[in-house]
Amino acid sequence: MVCKIKVWEGKNRYGYIKGEIDSFHWYALVHKDEVDFGIDPYSLDVGIGRVSRLCIYKDVPMANYTKRLIYANYKRQWDVLNKSYETMIKELVNYLERRYSIRLVK
User: Fold this and answer.
1) Is the distance from CB of 55 to CB of 89 less than 8 angstroms?
2) pLDDT tens track for 9-50
3) Which domain of life is it from (predicted)?
């Protein structure tokens, strides 16, 4: 499964990054270095990784409010992990790990 991942341009403060993956929205906290409470990019377990916060959601506008459907929510542990979207979540975590581990050498 190949997902279309897009990072929203703009000011991302303190390592928080926002974007889209297919028809979902997401935000994540990505650290410069790996942390021991991050998401393991291979197993999605709590382990060594750069991503310590991840939320994948879809906003559904209603008449007077917006309903937010959460498909994955990680804050140092999984609060919500929808197994039917596990491949998409793993792809996003791997993308964030690769993209933000690049170091420029002079």
Assistant:
1) no
2) 876 777 889 999 999 999 999 998 899 999 999 899 998 999
3) Bacteria
